[in-house]
Amino acid sequence: QVQLVESGGGLVQAGGSLRLSCAASGGTFSSYAMGWFRQAPGKEREFVAGISRGGGSTNYVASVKGRFSISRDNAKNTVYLEMNSLKPEDTAVYCCAADRNAAFGSAISNARAYDYWGQGTQVTVSS
What we know:
Blueprint: E1 3-7, E2 10-13, E3 18-25, E4 33-39, E5 46-51, E6 58-60, E7 68-73, E8 78-83, E9 92-99, E10 116-117, E11 121-126
Parallel strand pairs: 2-11
Antiparallel strand pairs: 1-3, 3-8, 4-5, 4-9, 5-6, 7-8, 9-10, 9-11
Protein backbone atom coordinates (compact mmCIF):
# COMPACT_ATOMS: atom_id res chain seq x y z
CA GLN A 1 0.00 0.00 0.00
CA VAL A 2 1.33 3.39 -0.98
CA GLN A 3 1.01 6.35 1.36
CA LEU A 4 1.21 9.89 0.02
CA VAL A 5 1.67 12.90 2.26
CA GLU A 6 1.49 16.44 0.93
CA SER A 7 3.05 19.51 2.49
CA GLY A 8 3.85 23.10 1.62
CA GLY A 9 0.40 24.63 1.39
CA GLY A 10 -0.53 27.88 3.05
CA LEU A 11 -1.80 31.41 2.65
CA VAL A 12 -0.14 33.62 0.06
CA GLN A 13 -0.95 36.90 -1.64
CA ALA A 14 -1.82 37.04 -5.30
CA GLY A 15 1.33 37.02 -7.38
CA GLY A 16 3.20 34.99 -4.80
CA SER A 17 4.68 31.51 -4.94
CA LEU A 18 4.43 28.22 -3.12
CA ARG A 19 6.13 24.88 -3.51
CA LEU A 20 4.14 21.78 -2.69
CA SER A 21 5.76 18.46 -1.90
CA CYS A 22 4.33 14.97 -1.88
CA ALA A 23 6.32 12.27 -0.13
CA ALA A 24 5.57 8.65 -0.98
CA SER A 25 6.19 5.53 1.04
CA GLY A 26 5.27 1.88 0.90
CA GLY A 27 5.76 1.31 -2.80
CA THR A 28 8.13 1.61 -5.73
CA PHE A 29 7.86 5.32 -6.38
CA SER A 30 9.77 5.26 -9.64
CA SER A 31 7.21 2.89 -11.18
CA TYR A 32 4.30 5.32 -10.73
CA ALA A 33 3.25 8.25 -12.81
CA MET A 34 2.30 11.07 -10.47
CA GLY A 35 -0.31 13.76 -10.65
CA TRP A 36 -1.49 16.83 -8.78
CA PHE A 37 -5.18 17.57 -8.53
CA ARG A 38 -7.10 20.33 -6.81
CA GLN A 39 -10.61 20.89 -5.57
CA ALA A 40 -12.09 24.24 -4.66
CA PRO A 41 -15.22 24.61 -2.53
CA GLY A 42 -18.32 23.84 -4.57
CA LYS A 43 -16.31 22.69 -7.57
CA GLU A 44 -15.32 19.35 -9.01
CA ARG A 45 -11.84 17.95 -8.63
CA GLU A 46 -9.55 19.21 -11.37
CA PHE A 47 -6.35 17.82 -12.84
CA VAL A 48 -3.51 20.30 -12.43
CA ALA A 49 -0.32 18.59 -13.57
CA GLY A 50 1.14 15.16 -14.23
CA ILE A 51 4.57 13.67 -14.64
CA SER A 52 5.67 10.36 -16.08
CA ARG A 53 7.53 7.69 -14.16
CA GLY A 54 10.96 8.85 -15.22
CA GLY A 55 10.08 12.52 -15.20
CA GLY A 56 10.66 13.02 -18.89
CA SER A 57 7.06 13.87 -19.77
CA THR A 58 4.78 16.39 -18.10
CA ASN A 59 1.38 17.86 -18.82
CA TYR A 60 -0.66 20.67 -17.35
CA VAL A 61 -4.15 22.03 -17.35
CA ALA A 62 -4.26 25.11 -19.56
CA SER A 63 -4.98 27.50 -16.69
CA VAL A 64 -1.63 26.84 -14.99
CA LYS A 65 0.68 26.46 -17.99
CA GLY A 66 3.63 28.81 -17.69
CA ARG A 67 2.98 29.38 -13.97
CA PHE A 68 3.21 25.90 -12.41
CA SER A 69 5.93 23.29 -12.77
CA ILE A 70 5.81 19.66 -11.73
CA SER A 71 8.97 17.69 -11.01
CA ARG A 72 10.02 14.58 -9.18
CA ASP A 73 13.01 13.18 -7.36
CA ASN A 74 12.85 9.41 -7.50
CA ALA A 75 15.78 9.09 -5.12
CA LYS A 76 13.74 10.95 -2.50
CA ASN A 77 10.37 9.41 -3.40
CA THR A 78 8.96 12.89 -3.75
CA VAL A 79 7.03 14.85 -6.35
CA TYR A 80 6.86 18.64 -6.31
CA LEU A 81 4.58 21.32 -7.63
CA GLU A 82 6.18 24.73 -7.98
CA MET A 83 3.46 27.37 -8.19
CA ASN A 84 4.27 30.92 -9.29
CA SER A 85 2.18 33.98 -10.09
CA LEU A 86 -0.60 32.58 -7.96
CA LYS A 87 -4.12 33.86 -8.46
CA PRO A 88 -7.14 33.81 -6.13
CA GLU A 89 -8.74 31.24 -8.44
CA ASP A 90 -5.90 28.84 -7.59
CA THR A 91 -7.32 28.56 -4.07
CA ALA A 92 -8.13 24.90 -3.41
CA VAL A 93 -7.10 21.75 -1.62
CA TYR A 94 -4.25 20.24 -3.60
CA CYS A 95 -3.76 16.46 -3.61
CA CYS A 96 -1.13 14.28 -5.15
CA ALA A 97 -1.94 10.90 -6.64
CA ALA A 98 -0.06 7.88 -7.98
CA ASP A 99 -0.90 5.86 -11.09
CA ARG A 100 0.63 2.39 -10.87
CA ASN A 101 -0.48 1.34 -14.35
CA ALA A 102 0.87 4.26 -16.32
CA ALA A 103 2.63 3.47 -19.55
CA PHE A 104 6.22 4.56 -19.76
CA GLY A 105 6.41 8.23 -20.70
CA SER A 106 2.78 9.05 -19.94
CA ALA A 107 0.97 10.98 -17.25
CA ILE A 108 -2.80 10.78 -17.53
CA SER A 109 -5.08 13.65 -16.58
CA ASN A 110 -8.07 11.41 -15.77
CA ALA A 111 -8.44 11.04 -12.01
CA ARG A 112 -9.90 7.54 -12.46
CA ALA A 113 -6.51 6.30 -13.62
CA TYR A 114 -4.94 7.04 -10.26
CA ASP A 115 -4.79 4.39 -7.58
CA TYR A 116 -3.44 6.15 -4.51
CA TRP A 117 -4.25 9.57 -3.12
CA GLY A 118 -2.93 11.83 -0.43
CA GLN A 119 -5.08 13.76 2.04
CA GLY A 120 -4.31 17.10 0.50
CA THR A 121 -2.90 20.45 1.52
CA GLN A 122 -4.78 23.74 1.52
CA VAL A 123 -3.61 26.56 -0.72
CA THR A 124 -5.27 29.93 -0.21
CA VAL A 125 -4.45 32.90 -2.42
CA SER A 126 -5.67 36.27 -1.22
CA SER A 127 -6.38 39.16 -3.56
